[in-house]
Write a structure and sequence with these properties.
731 residues; mainly alpha; 4 domains; seven-stranded mixed sheet; two-stranded antiparallel sheet
């Protein structure tokens, strides 16, 4: 296009507007799932779960250091990076949308409102793209690494469109080299960064295929790839320094082995690094082995699409409710936007269509999810479902779709205005543009995180339930990662050894636990960060949590016992009859308990799970949010009260648990709430409901005043409301 001037000032304004919206609704601290893991690893330059996301860790650390003079909390600083990257992506998609609409409108338009349509459409796209539910929900807390990836997709898209305009100018090839570099560099954050590649390739073939034979361009592109992938060397270098969070432990014996693993994408070279880069531990099946029928997977995508534009119209998670007309409207307008892009030119139209296809249907096929968390019917068992909703994988597509919808909406406006340049007709048709406000209005209550301290307080309450130098066995992300955040970022209760049971099945994790709990590395109890309910310890433990050697730990496997087996756990001989199944994690946990009991209090995140699997449930008692192991007859232990069978029949350390629950614990965002948006974490408020239910039951059994029991039951009821999704969900 001749004399095209990109509206950079308007794009900056759109980015600023999105940023201010995200800041207004920004989470004040950490949140559930991977949020705490990523904030903690960025803060300490640790290694998060495979593939390790080195670009994210380093960028977040630098960003956090730059914002340190502001005095903001570390979590707020890193949440602001999610807001900033997502807002910048909005600005670059703004530029792409403006350019396409400008090509569609043409050069010879006289009516001012028609000439302004590209700018209006780009602003409408910014509004809808930035307020799509998943985009908004991921932009005001750093739950994942994907906002950085979406920024890369948006920048590459703008570079692609600019290259198409300037392809015959000297030096235009550098735009392609930069696009290649950004995609490959972005892959060291997450492979999502590579998703624009098919669209870019198709655009090149359409616009100027001979550029692929340019020797200088190819050489520069190869060098860009080599340089970009070198960021992965961070993984083995930092891992060898044994940070406290070092998942996968991608240590390499030689630089050459690391280089081979990096530049073959894990096909050869250093085994530990290769396993990390290929996410070997997750054992994804080949694409031909569908984990759920493709039809169900496509419906699952539409379920998430259905959330994007008017989430608050219905609390239902599955499609087919009051949101459906809005969702179908946005789906149709987005398709119309692709048609408008083709009217602007074959190149832009094909690029946008290919990118939209890659970020939606192709991604559904590639990700190959199991049955949807909430979409699958009761006939599908939990093991065959995803453990949570996976809408965040499609954040790039939903962000893009907001802009496609805007292009379709402007096309509808022009069509409704007669297709010409009659100002009166255009004014009469202009109310259709109000559609752009729908996501902002109906998603606000579901995306707002401005007063949500629930994950931070959950982690705080868990840690304060554990005695000095205790071991806490956890079950998964949400009873582990917030604890990591509290320990590594806020420095609270670093003396507690948090053990993720599922990680015990790996080779690297048990070794790390022993390494970090050696007396010379054991982090000391700090009374200033602990609840004043425990007696100060005489001193730190004198040995690591287990005495097993590396060789002995490596030999531990899973299977049924061939004969009766007895383990001395403190003063009690625990018997396991022949035929009992014990996994590697169970056996290593049992060894840790055996070797630590007497020096370290043993706690579990729940009475079910590991205590049940190890046959130890009869010796556990509720202590705040945790279950403490006491190898004694609990009926003879002072302060223990057994609850009635109606509430589980568990033992409760009543006085200590009441003190913790009423004087120590914090419940911000947990006790009273209108909306709990993520239904997969509703087990968190259920924990507090059950805590107060058992406290009320135990208090009644020891004859506490009826008023006290009633107050405990009232609090249980308040947690019950939150555990059902919030007050709006049960209206």
């Amino acid at each position: 296009m001749k004399d095209f001037r990109p509206p950079y000032a308007h794009a900056a304004g759109a980015s600023l507007g999105a940023f201010l919206l995200y800041v207004w609704t920004l989470a004040p601290t950490t949140w559930f799932w991977d949020t705490s893991e990523y904030i903690a690893t960025a803060h300490i330059l640790g290694i998060p779960h495979p593939p390790g996301n080195p670009l994210f860790v380093v960028v977040d650390k630098v960003w956090s250091l730059l914002l340190a003079p502001t005095g903001l909390e570390v979590a707020v600083r890193i949440n602001l990076l999610a807001a900033t990257t997502s807002a910048l992506a909005t600005g670059f998609f703004f530029l792409v949308t403006y350019r396409i609409l400008k090509g569609w409108i043409g050069e010879d338009v006289k009516e001012i409102w028609v000439r302004r349509m590209p700018l209006i459409g780009a602003w409408l796209g910014a509004l809808m793209g930035a307020t799509a539910f998943t985009v908004w929900n991921q932009s005001n807390v750093n739950e994942k690494v994907y906002t950085l990836s979406v920024l890369g997709i948006a920048v590459v898209s703008w570079l692609a469109i600019r290259w198409a305009d300037r392809k015959d100018e000297p030096g235009a090839g550098w735009l392609l080299v930069l696009a290649v570099y950004l995609m490959v560099l972005g892959s060291t954050n997450h492979l999502m960064a590579l998703l624009p590649a098919p669209a870019l390739g198709v655009l090149i073939l359409l616009e100027k295929p001979r550029v692929l034979l340019d020797r200088h361009l190819l050489t520069r592109s190869v060098l860009a790839v080599v340089l970009a992938l070198s960021f992965n060397f961070f993984l083995p270098i930092r891992s060898a320094q044994q940070p406290i969070i070092n998942e996968g432990e991608p240590i390499c014996e030689t630089l050459g082995g690391a280089a081979v693993a990096i530049y073959t994408n894990g096909a050869a070279g250093c085994e530990a690094l290769a396993a990390n880069l290929t996410r070997e531990q997750y054992a994804k099946p080949p694409l031909t082995d569908r984990q759920a029928p493709l039809g169900h997977q496509l419906t699952n995508w539409f379920q998430y699409f259905d959330w994007q534009w008017a989430r608050g119209l219905s609390v239902a998670e599955t499609p087919g409710n009051a949101r459906l007309p809005i969702s179908l409207l946005f789906l149709g307008l987005g398709v119309g936007g692709i048609l408008v892009a083709f009217r602007a030119g074959t190149g832009p139209g094909t690029y946008m269509a290919t990118l939209a296809f890659t970020l939606t249907l192709a991604l559904v096929y590639y990700l190959n999810f199991r049955y949807g968390f909430s979409l699958a019917g009761d006939e599908i068992d939990r093991a065959s479902r995803e453990v949570r909703e996976r809408d965040y994988f499609f954040i790039g597509g939903f962000h893009l779709w907001g802009f496609l919808t805007a292009m379709g909406l402007v096309g509808l406006w022009r069509w409704a205005g007669g297709g010409g340049e009659d100002r009166k007709h255009l004014a009469m048709a202009a109310p259709v543009l109000v559609v752009a406000l729908v996501p902002l209005v109906f998603n606000y209550g579901w995306a707002d995180r401005s007063d949500d301290h629930s994950a931070r307080d959950w982690g705080y309450n868990m840690l304060q339930s554990v005695e000095p130098y205790g071991i806490l066995f956890t079950n998964g992300d949400n009873d582990t990662f917030p604890l990591w955040y509290l320990q590594e970022v806020e420095g609270i209760r670093q003396d507690v050894t948090v053990i993720v049971v599922q990680y015990l099945y790996t080779q690297w994790y048990p070794r790390q636990l022993r390494y970090h709990t050696q007396p010379e590395r054991q982090r000391h109890f700090d009374a200033e960060t602990a609840a004043p309910v425990y007696d100060p310890p005489a001193g730190p433990p004198t040995r690591a949590i287990t005495q097993l050697t590396d060789e002995e730990m490596n030999q531990v496997g899973s299977g049924q016992l061939g004969q009766d087996f007895t383990v001395d756990v403190g003063p009690v001989a625990v018997q396991y009859p022949a035929g009992t199944w014990l996994g590697r994690g169970d056996r290593l946990a049992l060894a840790i308990i055996r070797d630590s009991l007497g020096e370290r209090p043993i706690h579990f995140a729940s009475t079910a799970g590991l205590p049940q699997d190890l046959g130890l449930r009869r010796w556990v008692t509720r202590q705040g949010l945790t279950a403490r192991l006491i190898m004694d007859d609990l009926s003879e232990v002072e302060g223990m009260v057994q609850t009635s069978q109606q509430v589980g029949g568990d033992w409760v350390n009543l006085d200590l648990s009441l003190t913790l629950a009423e004087e120590v614990f914090s419940y911000r965002g947990l006790e009273e709430r209108d909306v709990w948006a993520d239904r997969a974490t509703l087990n968190i408020p259920w924990h507090f409901y059950f805590l107060y239910l058992q406290l009320a039951d135990a208090a009644g059994q020891v004859g506490m005043p009826e008023g006290t029991v009633g107050e405990l039951l009232d609090r249980a009821d308040r947690f019950s409301v939150v555990a059902q999704g919030g007050s709006r969900a049960i209206q």
